[in-house]
């Protein structure tokens, strides 16, 4: 199998998952949106987004689906099964709709738009993203105050998914320090090599720099 990826948040999540699981796959940097590249990738993912997991005669897109397949392939409980699976799916779902969604709102304005010259920062959207971040963090904080991980007594994919945008907080500037339990939880993730630097020894061009507004 081969994982097509970039350094953007969701592809980064897929690479981190694959490397954490020590999955026996190849990695290939890809740019489906680059000029002249669309047709090459359209058959693999009609959305032309990354990541994409490719095997003989098939492809799988969407990060969560890829994480599920890779985890099952190596027989890991990183993707929970059995009684803990509903709990994991709850946090994946809530995280994408609430916590990670709020992080993405802020990161898109302060990071993505500035990297790719999409337009100026919309301060109203930043403020709305921060409002939603605080609302979600207020739910997550007490959940993490009495445990190390979101599901059971060990790390799961729910932890990786919840933290999708936090490696980009140098540009997003989310106030993590206002939430000590969340901060401690994320520091535990940063100790994991596959999370801290998933692109180590991979051919992966750096993201364009963020252009600071004058």
Short description:
By secondary structure, this protein is α+β, with helices and mostly antiparallel strands. It contains nine helices and four strands; from the N terminus they run E-H-E-H-E-E-H-H-H-H-H-H-H.
Question: What's the structural blueprint in terms of helices and strands?
Answer:
Layout: E1 2-5, H1 9-20, E2 26-29, H2 38-42, E3 52-55, E4 58-61, H3 63-73, H4 85-116, H5 123-145, H6 157-162, H7 169-172, H8 180-190, H9 193-196
Parallel strand pairs: 1-2
Antiparallel strand pairs: 1-3, 3-4
Helix pairs in contact: 1-3, 4-5, 5-8
Descriptive keywords:
alpha+beta; 9 helices; 4 strands; 214 residues; globular; 4-stranded mixed sheet
Question: If you had to describe this structure to a student in words, what would you say it looks like?
Answer:
Helix 1 links the parallel strand 1 (2-5) and strand 2 (26-29). The mean pLDDT is 96. The protein is built from nine helices and four strands, in the order βαβαββααααααα. Helix 1 packs parallel to helix 3 (63-73), helix 4 runs antiparallel to helix 5 (123-145) and helix 5 (123-145) crosses helix 8. A four-stranded mixed sheet has the order 2-1-3-4, covered by helices on one side. It has 214 residues and is an alpha+beta fold.
Give the number of helices: 9
Average per-residue pLDDT, rounded, comes to: 96
Number of strands: 4
| Oligomeric state, counting identical vs distinct chains | single chain
Span of the ends, CA to CA: 45 Å
CA-based shape? globular
Largest sheet: 4 strands, mixed
β-strand percent reads 5-15%
Q: Which stretches of 5+ consecutive residues score pLDDT under 50?
A: none
Lateral arrangement of strands in the main beta sheet: 2-1-3-4
SSE topology string: EHEHEEHHHHHHH
- Please identify the structural class as seen in this structure: alpha+beta
Q: What is the radius of gyration computed over CA atoms, rounded to a whole number of angstroms?
A: 17 Å
What portion of residues is helical?
A: 40-55%
